[in-house]
């Protein structure tokens, strides 16, 4: 894709009098030399792969480390109870985010969105929206284009890898992508979409990458829940008319600068943070002894 700023996408949208998602569609057509139908069907394939991964969740599976598996089922059962503080939409988002993260840890087939470690955020939000709102699949595919455009801008102007920018670059980016996508689904215009991105990403700035035993399981899977819920909440704020005091592209640039300031010991090296707690060290020793 050829966009390094969200403003470039919105300006193109206004100039060409097309929606945000259509700007990304046309750019994909140009970049890959494909037809509109070929591009759209490829994106549909990605969305259906997310649906398939969700449908194939197996609560009996456990990751090789034993740290991941079964929690998605607990949330599924919890969603059926009345003793909870949040509504059915957010509860299902939480459930799907954990299920996708656990499927990844248990070597299931997932869609990296934008990374494997953050694979639960976007599917949790979009699949729940489709199920609960009853919208046509084409609309969800369009929303995935919105998410893709946001992700490309972040990747170009900042980064999406935990090793480069901390978990803000993975869960934070996924949350921003999902926030923009769901804002589009809720009827938001370009201003709403980009402000949802800004509000979402601001909440994730500075998030470190400190995986226990070097695995994308703890705390990664549960952070997918935080990113997904954050996306829904901030999209609602933007839809309500709340605007970010900091320009969206400036927020993304801030993430880039913050990522460079995060010490290497907190960027996926497992040298500090949660990774060196007594609990984490005990897990690491157990895994080393059994390997």
Q: Could you walk me through the main structural features you see in this protein, from its secondary elements to its overall organization?
A:
This protein has 291 residues and is mainly alpha-helical. The protein has a single domain (6-290), classed as 2-methylcitrate dehydratase PrpD (Orthogonal Bundle). It is built from 13 helices and no strands. It has helices at residues 6-16, 20-32, 36-55, 71-79, 88-105, 121-133, 137-157, 162-165, 171-185, 190-202, 220-239, 248-261, 278-290.
According to CATH, what is the class?
A: Mainly Alpha
β-strand percent reads under 5%
The biggest beta sheet is recorded as: none
Helical fraction equals: 55-70%
What radius of gyration results from the CA coordinates? 19 Å
Shape: globular
Secondary structure layout plus pairing:
Blueprint lengths: L5 H11 L3 H13 L3 H20 L15 H9 L8 H18 L15 H13 L3 H21 L4 H4 L5 H15 L4 H13 L17 H20 L8 H14 L16 H13 L1
């Amino acid at each position: 894709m050829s966009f390094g700023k969200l403003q470039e996408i919105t300006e193109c949208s206004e100039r060409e009098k097309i929606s945000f998602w259509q700007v990304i569609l046309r750019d994909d057509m140009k970049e890959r030399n494909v037809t509109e139908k070929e591009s759209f069907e490829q994106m549909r394939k990605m969305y259906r792969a997310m649906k398939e991964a969700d449908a194939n969740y197996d609560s009996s599976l456990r990751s090789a480390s034993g740290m991941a598996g079964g929690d998605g089922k607990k949330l599924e059962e919890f969603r059926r109870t009345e003793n909870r503080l949040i509504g059915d939409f957010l509860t299902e988002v939480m459930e799907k985010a954990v299920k996708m993260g656990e499927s990844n840890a248990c070597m299931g087939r997932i869609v990296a969105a934008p990374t494997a470690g953050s694979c639960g955020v976007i599917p949790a939000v979009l699949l729940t929206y489709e199920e609960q709102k009853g919208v046509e699949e084409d609309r969800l595919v369009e929303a995935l284009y919105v998410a893709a455009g946001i992700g490309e801008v972040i990747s170009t102007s900042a980064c999406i890898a935990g090793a480069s920018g901390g978990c803000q670059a993975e869960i934070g980016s996924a949350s921003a992508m999902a926030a923009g996508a769901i804002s589009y689904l809720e009827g938001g215009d370009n201003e709403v979409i980009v402000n949802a991105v800004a509000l979402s990403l601001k909440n994730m700035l500075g998030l470190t990458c400190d995986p226990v035993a070097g695995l994308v399981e703890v705390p990664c899977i549960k952070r997918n829940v935080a990113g997904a819920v954050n996306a829904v909440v901030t999209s609602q704020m933007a839809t309500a008319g709340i605007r970010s005091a900091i320009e969206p592209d400036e927020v993304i640039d801030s993430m880039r600068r913050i990522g460079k300031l995060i010490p290497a010991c907190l960027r996926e090296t497992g040298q500090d943070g949660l990774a060196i707690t007594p609990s984490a060290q005990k897990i690491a020793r157990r895994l080393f002894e059994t390997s």
